[in-house]
Every structure is written in structure tokens, then in C-alpha cells.
Amino acid sequence: MSVRELVVLGTASQVPTRHRNHNGYLLRWDGEGLLFDPGEGTQRQMLRAGVAAHDLNRICVTHFHGDHSLGLAGVIQRINLDRVPHEITAHYPKSGQRFFDRLRYATAYRETVRLTEAPVAADGELARTGGYTLEARRLSHPVESFGYRLMEPDGRRMLPDRLAAHGIKGPDVGRIQREGSLNGVTLDDVSEVRRGQRFAFVMDTRLCDGVHALADGCDLLVIESTFLDEDEQLAVEHGHLTAGQAATVARDAGVRHLVLTHFSQRYSEPEEFERQARAAGYEGELTAAHDLLRVPVPKRR
Question: Which are the catalytic amino acids?
């Protein structure tokens, strides 16, 4: 059975709190798992969330600040300890190669798994599989940072009334899907485009073109909202977004489900992030994330 959901492992910004672990987010996409920004403590949070090393196929790091990457050492060693049988690919800013190397080999361990390094140097496509395309876009932060976007290929939705009108039924339905036409009837005559689902992961950044490009048309957007709107100047100075800014991006991009996260430890009431997001005019489904939360990707339109 295919599962598409976000498993939130941690939601803190800069330092963990009593109730929030450092960052960590697992996207389950059918039979694959993409781990984003494993901060310190991610390996333990995976255990609490029921996520195994065998569930991982890709690791995507937005940038090399500690709250987004210090968990790499433990996760990589756990992958090898558990002898994950398949290849795992790691994406991260190429400019941070020295940091990745230090974390990958932070201590002695026995390497048993093929971990492929695929650093990101510029905007563009990173991978294409049968189930999705993974892209990266540059963000605006004091250190080089990239956001990630996963897109399912568009498909076709068969229309029963049009099939019936053309007398197409039974095995002929599969035939027209495979061949594109049947007895003068084209696939376009009896179906319509079913847009593939889209997911984006946007962490530490100011407002920039990359943020908008990543969010465009997303079914599920995970985006940092480190500060509340009254602290917008702090957000600009430190390269972050406010709740209102994140929600405005989602509103303008037509996002269906907005997940706010990466909250500064200065705030204790996540409800205020939701209130400010609504005040910015976002009307879709809205979640202020907490640790160990599971968020399903919205069903296809």
C-alpha cells in the first residue's frame, strides 16, 4: 500500500527545547523515504516515530548550520550499523563539502552501505525516478542554502461518461491507455490530465525568488517561520521568515496544506503562528508543527 506523508521529527530553531528537538523531517513517498535536515537527536527521534534506517533512500540537507545537520553523523553510522541493503543518496550544498566530510567521518565505524554523495551547486533537477522528480532552488541565508521540491509526473484520469459514449469498456480501456488511440478515438477524447502531487521543503531563508519557485502549486509545503511578524526586522537580519511572510508565500502560490515549523525558542505559543498565518490571508489547511506529528499529503485534486 502506497503511503505519502510527512513525519515531523523535530521543529526547534537553533537550540532544542524541552518540547522541541532539533530539525528533522521524513517524507514517505510510496516506497521511498527522504530525510530532510537531520539535526542533533534525529536518530533518537526516528526511534520514537517508528522510522527505521531501512526506510531511508535520500538525505537532503538545506545548509550546514548545526540545527539542520549535526544529526548526520549518527544517522549515517546507524545506516551502516543496520546494513541497509540499498543505495542511499545524500544531497547538500557543494560549498559545504568539508562539513559533510567531517560529519560523515566524525568517528570510527565500519562502512557497509553504499552512500552516494550528490552535492548541489546550482538550481535545477537533482534526480528523476519513476515516481518523482527532485529539484533544488537557492535560498537567501548567511550561509549557502538550498530548498527542495519533489514533483510527481502528471498522469491521466479516465472519464467513465466519455468512455461509455464511445463504447469503450473492459480490456479496451487499458488498450487506449497504452496505445493512445483506439478505432479513431484518442486518449484525450476519453480522459483528462491528472496533475501530479507536489511537495516542497523550505528552510532558513529570507524572502527570495527561490522561495516562491519552490512553493508554486504545492500540495504540501513545509516552510520555516522562525519569527512572529512583530520581529520581522530580526528575521531579515538573520535570514529567516516570519509566520505572516510564510503564509503569504503559500497563499500566493496556491498551496493546499501549509506546515509551519522551525520556531524560535523565544516563543512558547505555537497558536500565535497559526493566527498570524490566517491574518495574512492563507485559507488552506494549516498546521503549526510539533515533534512526532504525521501529516498526510493531500489527496489528488
Answer: 67
